[in-house]
Amino acid sequence: MKNFDVVVWGASGFTGRLVAQYLAETYGIDGELRWAVAGRSESKLQDVAASCGFGGVAILIADSHDEAAIRRIAEQTTVICSTVGPYALYGSPLVKICSELGVHYCDLTGEVQWMRDMIETYHATAEASGAKIVHTCGFDSVPSDLGVHFLQKAFQSEYECFADTVHYRMMRASGGASGGTIASMLNMLAEADKNPSLVDLLADDYSLNPPNSQRGPDMPGDDVFFFDETLRRWVSPFVMAAINTRVVRRSHALLGNPYGAIFRYQEGTDCGPGFKGYARGLAASLLGKFGMGLLGLRWARRMITPLLPKPGEGPDEKARNAGFFEVQLHGRRAADPSQRLTVQVTGDRDPGYGSTAKMIAEAAVCLAKDPLPEGGGILTPSVSLGDAYVDRLTQKAGLTFTVLG
Ligand SMILES: NC(=O)c1ccc[n+]([C@@H]2O[C@H](COP(=O)([O-])OP(=O)(O)OC[C@H]3O[C@@H](n4cnc5c(N)ncnc54)[C@H](OP(=O)(O)O)[C@@H]3O)[C@@H](O)[C@H]2O)c1
Hints:
Rossmann fold; 7-stranded parallel β-sheet
């Protein structure tokens, strides 16, 4: 038997310590869940553990580039839960080792180019070993991917078929960004500077799909401001759409395209109806375009970076506790407009950290403890964890999944 069910890798970082705190509060230190924390600095981990309420937990040490040391950690556990990012800089050796050893793995990456690389390099290895490698177990992309999973189950039970069109709308949220998230985004932009073909990859709606899998027709894109004729509301681009939509499409492909050849998935931010909705949406989309345009310029990034949160920093406890999110997913069938259903997904903390820490922690416990669908590979949250994960998120992690009708 392995020494641990779960190892939290990166527990000295901003998000990693929230994950460890959550595990300590929810499962105790020496309780039903056998868990440990890991990172590169023993003294830092000891300090963080003592001050954040998980003192006494086992501590394992490795640098993310030291394959032998990572292997020794991976051999001791059923699951590694990684919050060490930017993942493109620090994550590949761990995915390699987990894939080879058949150790389950979950993380918080939103770095599409790195996920593509992991799929191409390690999917077959993980499939053979049975390791479930699950990226995007945070705000991107759990509400999207599990939201579609939940919606389609409800749709199936209501209409005995699946929705062929699903629109995700970010309704309301309050939260902030950490230094680690900003570092990951800046690293992605720096990689795109060096390798212009990444721009095409990032723009590809199906960038995470298996080779030769079904494509299109998807519309409208993720970067447009438009009036949704069906819902009669204005919609502006949603900042996470370029990650979430790829994950949902990968899930669909891995499941064998059960929602049909014309399945369409789109994400946007709900701006409301009428002139007020138009003005709000226009302002948000112009601001977003301006911000992304600025970040695309190397000199502007150099000027802005010192003003942004540094690695290890992020929204304080008050902001996390006051935070929340609410998204809605609208499903329908093109052939019969009367067949439609809306579900809502909410979280009781800020999306990026308070709720995300609980989401990834429960993904790790789910991988360690729950009976799950067979099979390894580079999977998605819904394909690898499915209903057991929805249950955990609602029973333990403060998320709700509700059919609104
Ligand atoms: N998808 C989502 O919803 C979501 C939400 C939150 C975070 N994230 C992602 O999660 C990642 C972490 O974010 P964060 O804000 O928690 O970052 P952070 O505070 O900078 O923490 C990074 C962690 O990585 C560790 N680390 C760095 N280099 C290492 C190395 N060579 N070997 C071993 N450990 C190393 C750091 O250890 P030290 O303490 O020793 O420096 C620290 O524990 C980012 O990629 C971010 O984008 C995603």
